[in-house]
Amino acid sequence: MNLSARLLQTLDSLKQAPVASAHCDGPCGVYDPASARIAGEAVLSMTKKLLDLDMSADGAHNTYARFVAIKEEEAEKVKRELNILWHDYFKPPHLEEYPDLHTTFWNAAKQASACKTSVSLDAATDLMAQIENVHNIFWATKGRDIPWYTAS
After folding, report:
1. Is the dihedral angle over the CA atoms 117, 118, 119, 122 positive or is it negative?
2. Could you report the per-residue pLDDT of 3-28, keeping only the tens digit for each?
3. Taking the CA atoms of the chain, what radius of gyration do you get in angstroms?
């Protein structure tokens, strides 16, 4: 055992740290579906830009590649943010109140993946609708009526 470990063991034997517990990985108030909404809006925006792009214009292929890269990166952010909410915020009591919660999140994550693999306005619009559903459930679990709004 090295010196640091022995020192910590000695200090611990003198006075142990109190046991702490939490119901979430982060403190209350850190979770919010807004980050998924913002990333979803970027997916929708890039999808619209891709569909409107004049491929005969100079530099269009480079612009197309950049828009696709941004769209895919933002769709991955949606998945990450939704997974954080699903795995870290929602607990068994929420499942009792919303028995389709796992399916809701699974479908939203699948929809984000669909947006990564296509350039579809319908897919991007559906992703936003699914994020809105998560938003509504999330805020309902907190007993708050937070309006859904988008920048687009």
Report:
1. negative
2. 877 776 776 777 776 665 555 555 55
3. 22
C-beta of residue 40 within 8 angstroms of C-beta of residue 71: no
Q: State the DSSP string of 69-112.
A: HHHHHHHHHHHHHHHHIIIII--HHHHHH-TTHHHHHHHHHHHH
Distances from the Cα of 78 to the Cα of 11, 38, 58, 70, 128, angstroms: 44, 8, 32, 12, 10
pLDDT at residue 59 in the model: 95
Gap between the Cα atoms of 61 and 63, Å rounded: 5
Task: Answer yes or no: are the C-beta atoms of 36 and 131 closer than 8 Å.
Answer: yes
Residues near 49 by beta carbon (within 8 Å), at least 6 away in sequence: 67
pTM of the model: 0.81
Burial 38-54 (b: 16+ CB within 10 A, else e): bbbbbbbbbbbbbeeee
**Alpha-carbon gap, residue 71 to 118, rounded angstroms:** 10
Domains along the chain with CATH numbers: 29-141 (1.20.120.400)
CB 136 within 8 A of CB 148: yes
